[in-house]
């Protein structure tokens, strides 16, 4: 019987258990640089076998939310070094999630207040990003209409990922996770609905997946493929991502392409919206498990029982928990001993107003009565 609490070897790295802390944006940095409070937050949770950082913008252009600490300059590296040292001191491991939001941004966040970029010009509706409102206050605003990237700019973004991955190594991260989930830039290229390009990055499935695969390969050449991972949310619908023609073929070809690469892991985020297409998602999951020989992390609504059932059915190797880690820094110990889990306060998931510690580093560990 497999449990969550046995060690696991991930690409030559020993993890002390199979519990992963899922990437979670917490917008706690006023100047976009990680600091001691951020380091404390991650180190409090370092009993997980692996931590994945919140999404880190790889460039100013890749930012869609205020107060998200980036990874594209020396100050960022110094900030993240505080975090990786604190995590390693507790015997933990941490990957950096590298992020470019594409169209999920606003002119007020872009240099020169120009339009954010995408595979086409369709804006995301029915959703918001966190930027500067018309009155100059921080707040939720509708994403701006994006401009279509020139071909050479697509290659430049791949380069931004490569540079950021190298900075992640300089900052002491154990690896990087390329954020290709949740409707951000790579999903915008994969979607035949959003991608209206006529160059080598649009049209056929091969063309629409080119940007993601070129980025994975370029980052792998820079830091080694065993330090590179990717997060996907196949058939995901958040941030106004609509079903598109050829979607099933797109995901099955991505699955095939990833099977040819020796990555640290592939991280699948199965969103609640999958309920709309459960059989398709199930089929993808089963096919991918068969073809991809490497480590699979799954996330989305897990508790200990469901996690261990999936481990024992050999569907996945590691399990990522998001929300449960917010109010339970000692989630691993609580699950192991069957102790009750604390509820987190949604009002403090994001934000820098008031004290950054509130709802962030002030959740206590469990005290037995
Ligand atoms: C506050 C918050 C912030 C999140 N930020 C990110 C992020 O930066 N990158 C990402 O890939 N997923 C992000 N997610 C999704 C989580 O990684 C995770 O997949 C999701 O919460 C489902 O897992 P859970 O049911 O265990 O919470 C976020 C989720 C929450 C609740």
From TrEMBL:
Pfam families: Oxidored_FMN. Gene3D superfamilies: Aldolase class I. It comes from the Bacteria. Residues 4-340 form the NADH:flavin oxidoreductase/NADH oxidase N-terminal domain. InterPro entries: Aldolase_TIM, OxRdtase_FMN_N, Oye-like. PANTHER family: NADH OXIDOREDUCTASE-RELATED, NADPH DEHYDROGENASE 2-RELATED. This is Alkene reductase. The lineage of its organism: Bacteria, Pseudomonadati, Pseudomonadota, Gammaproteobacteria, Vibrionales.
């Amino acid at each position: 019987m497999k449990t969550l609490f046995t060690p696991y070897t991930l690409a030559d790295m020993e993890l002390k258990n199979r519990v992963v802390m899922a990437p979670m944006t917490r917008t706690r940095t006023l100047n976009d640089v990680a600091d001691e409070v951020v380091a404390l937050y991650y180190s409090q949770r370092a009993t997980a076998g692996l931590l994945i950082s919140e999404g880190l913008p790889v460039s100013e252009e890749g930012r869609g939310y205020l107060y998200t600490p980036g990874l594209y300059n020396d100050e960022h590296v110094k900030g993240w070094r505080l975090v990786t040292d604190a995590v390693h001191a507790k015997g933990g491991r941490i990957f950096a999630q590298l992020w470019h939001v594409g169209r999920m941004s606003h002119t007020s966040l872009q240099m020169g207040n120009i339009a954010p970029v995408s595979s086409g010009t369709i804006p995301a509706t029915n959703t918001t990003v966190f930027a500067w409102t018309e009155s100059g206050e921080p707040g939720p605003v509708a994403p701006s209409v994006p401009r279509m990237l020139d071909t050479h700019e697509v290659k430049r973004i791949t380069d931004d990922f490569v540079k950021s991955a190298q900075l992640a190594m300089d900052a002491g991260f154990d690896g990087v996770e390329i954020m290709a989930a949740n409707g951000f830039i790579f999903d915008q290229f994969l979607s035949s609905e959003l991608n209206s390009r006529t160059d080598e990055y649009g049209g056929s499935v091969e063309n629409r997946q080119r940007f993601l695969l070129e980025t994975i390969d370029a980052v792998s050449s820079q830091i080694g493929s065993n330090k590179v991972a990717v997060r996907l949310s196949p058939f995901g619908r958040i941030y106004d991502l609509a079903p598109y023609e050829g979607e099933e073929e797109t995901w099955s070809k991505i699955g095939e392409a990833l099977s040819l690469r020796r990555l640290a892991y592939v991280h699948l985020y199965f969103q609640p919206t999958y309920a709309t297409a459960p059989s398709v998602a199930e089929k993808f999951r089963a096919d991918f498990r068969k073809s991809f020989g490497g480590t699979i992390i799954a996330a989305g609504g897990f508790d200990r029982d469901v996690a261990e059932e999936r481990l024992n059915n050999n569907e996945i190797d590691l399990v990522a928990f998001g929300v449960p880690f917010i109010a339970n820094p000692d989630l691993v110990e609580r699950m192991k001993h069957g102790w009750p889990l604390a509820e987190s306060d949604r009002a403090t998931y994001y934000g820098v107003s008031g004290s950054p510690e509130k709802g962030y580093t002030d959740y206590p560990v469990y005290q037995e009565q």
